[in-house]
Predict the structure.
Amino acid sequence: MDVFFSALLQVLAPHTFGIMLVGIGVGLLVGILPGLGGAATLAMMLPFVYPMDAISAFAFLLGMHAVTATTGDITSVLFGIPGEATSAATVLDGYPMTRRGEGGRALGAVLFSSLVGALVGAAVLAISVPVIRPVVLQLGPPEFLMLTVLGLSFIVSLAGRNLLKGFIMAAFGFLLAMVGLDPQSSIQRFTFGQLYLWEGINVVPVVVGLFGGAEVLQLMMTRQSIAARRGDERLARVWQGVRDTLDHWWLTLRASAIGLGIGVIPGMGGAVSQFIAYAHAQHTSRQPETFGRGNVEGVIATGAVNNSREGGNLIPTVAFGIPGSISMAILLSVFLLKGLVPGPAMLTKNLDVTYAMVWIIVLSNIIAVAVSFLFLNQLVRLTYVRAVLLVPFLMVLTAFGAYTAHNSFADILLMLGATVVGVAAIRWDWPRAPLLLALVLGDIAERYLFLSYSLYEWRWLARPLVIAFAVVTVAGLVWPLVRGRRHATAPTVPRADVPITIGFLLVAVWVLYQASGWPFRTAVFPLATGGLLLAFAMAKLCAHPRVRRAGPLSEGSGGHVGRGSRPLSEETGRSPADEIDLPDVFATASRREWLSALAWMAAFFLLLWLVGALVAVPLFALVYLLTAARGSFVLAGTYAFASWLFIYALFDLALRVPLPQGALFS
Amino acid sequence: MRDLLPRGLICLVLALSLSACSRGESGASEPPGEFYRGKTVSIIVGSGAGGGFDTTARLVARHIGRHIPGNPTVIVVNMPGGGGLVAANHVYSAAPKDGTVIGLFHEAQVMNQLTGGEGVAFDLRHFNWLGSSYDDPNVCIVRSDAPAPAFKEMIGRGMPIAVGGTGPGSNTYDAPRVLAAATGANLKAVSGYPTTNDVRIGVERGEIHGMCLGWESVKSASGEWLADGYAKVFVQNGTTRHPDLSDVPLAMEFAKDETSRTLLRLVDAPGAMAKPFTLPPGVDSARVEIMRQALAATYRDAAFLDEARTMKLQFQPKDAAQIQEILNDVLATPPDVAAKYREIIQP
């Protein structure tokens, strides 16, 4: 106990504390800004810790790292643009709340639940380091495989009412996960000979496009602000979010536990845990049907899981010296740099450092949330200004966000492709979350299945934990059935479903044709997935009603995830569902509005490609604000100059982040 | 607003062409010594942030600027993909040839070129090599409680010793395959681990007995295992015993025949020029010389060496001529041996 509090005093020493504040400041910035991954920032900041002592070094880097996840959720909630894959699920309910004018409440909830999650993570880190080692060693590739299966079973709930559509999207996501070099045989799968695709499809550009890109396009067509309704601007709304978190304290704790549990296991990505926590929240909610359209429980679960995972991630790093993620690998190099040996010595000789790390997580999260609360009002106010004014800024967010994946323009193209899918999904009511979940899990599932088989052949199926996870998975699938059918209302069936489904059918046929020539191991996953996609698509076609247009859209709401379209509710504006439903711009926009928005978007990205970020961004801001947004010259000029200064000073000079250079200049 | 739209787009295009014109300068005529003043030199790393290549690149980037006349800013740009293939192709053909772009990608690309790997659009012999960072022979480690911890016992053994690896193209997988084929040791290479850290944890869980990788990585990441006797190095590749490992047998000593010896030499050859820096082909020779000297001076720099020591990195640089010699040697392998190699590493 003495060590525990003396470690706190060490962290609070003015010098160390000051260094930690600098780290937190950088972390807050990195979390909000796109184009800067957490790991890349840590690598860039590493040189600064050479002269520091061990605790100051961790105060700086861990302080920075711990708050990145917190502020990463802010852009997800406010603009629907997730900065990283681990903030994707926050969009699902956080952004609809913002559009409803409840941005303050959503931010309050996500920040406060993040804080609780972080505290839980830190507490468990403090008490579990002595005992965790044998537990983690019980979990090998077969158990990882079962965890991915468990995660995949949540597709059912993420698909909600549109079960078949959800399965089709998931199968498609799985196929996307197969793109690239097969890790077993190095045979190319679905790469079209493109070197860029060898590494597989990176999740970050897909997330940014699927959610963020689609939102930006939507905003370009709307005359309003992001928040469709001017909500209560007082800070009270933020406290409402805090109260929501406290009211749902049990959910907050469970989500934190999920984050911790998955964080402890090296090799499971962060995005997985967020979706599992989200689906868990939906499973156990009293109003599962409102998930995806602004249920605060979804926001709370995704906030809590993100930050508790950080504590979990640290456990194997400290206890074994085996990092669970790239960021942890960089932190591990700090251990070595400072002559610390991860493992049992962290509990004896270097116990003070271990406890100092716990305190750093606790303090930096408290400070980050407090600082964020100070600026919340200003941030939320952004969602009340005319959306077109935000367009140049958000366009940069999406472009830079995608560009972090490989620093390649192909990342941006992939993001734009995902935008097309995202827009189509919103317009014709196809759920996006299953696609993303399958993309994240597909690669892991295949890898660990073959690894389990090479290690144990089929004996892996008999491992006790494998059986336990299987039972949990089955229980999770059966439980909603036992609880009774949630909603009898039939989903509306847009006419476009037929051509879209036929498109998926053709993809499936092409996949089967391609895969049939590969060796067994390389082909088995694509064949199975392609077969499933074919089956689902056929089923969907058979289930499609013969009537040209399914009758008047029912105002009854269904439990589907992925903010969907409710064309009628906007026009009538009377139905009870209007309380939660949002106007669907894609359904109501005229052809001209579509053309104009698409032309501007194309112009921006073409410009970015041709002349690079430093010229394209201010130029686009100037012209767009003058013409499309009909802003004054002063406004447009200031905006353009500010954007140039921002990018040049911060990205180019201070942080030295690689930016698109422009094809004309290279 | 709508009728304004086309005009807005025209403005964009006009402004764009204007700004494009204003940037049409080139700097080939100034004296080589002054060229780098005020410039930014990028080191393009063929892997993501945080790995061994990235760490080495950032360490060099922090110091090399002092040794280049004009003291340019040096930054690191990550370009992961295909185990360095993307970066190698980029530096070979797309990157500017003015000496402001340095490449650092996996030396094992030489095996890729030799075996006619897909996507290889370069000839490594035509790069302007600056120097490599480490002499990093491949070794294999095994847990001391494995059923057969000595290499001799593994040869012709019934039950295989399982060593984990990431996949084909990585020495964690290729090396044990070649070892097994060349010596008859019953090593089973299990591939599919996402990273070498996952392989390490697999060793701790006990599902595999050991792993093969570069000696430098073993020392820095698994040094504890060796120190407390948890694991030991049971065989080393290469032609002579490494000074640190004088009591560990060479695989070469157990080679079945001459072809096997050639195969073993091949699998180890790239390790002798680990983490090599290069300029693209076609860079002005004066600038190549400046950069070669700058890198050599960096490797002698006291501040650099201090920092490397705290990071447990021990540089054993090779110069351009030595790299060229290794490349020529490997790429002169007879086609039938190359085909054999390719066949062995096929899963």
About this structure: Chain A has 27 helices and two strands. The two ends of chain A are 60 Å apart (CA to CA). The beta strands of chain A are 180-181, 188-189.
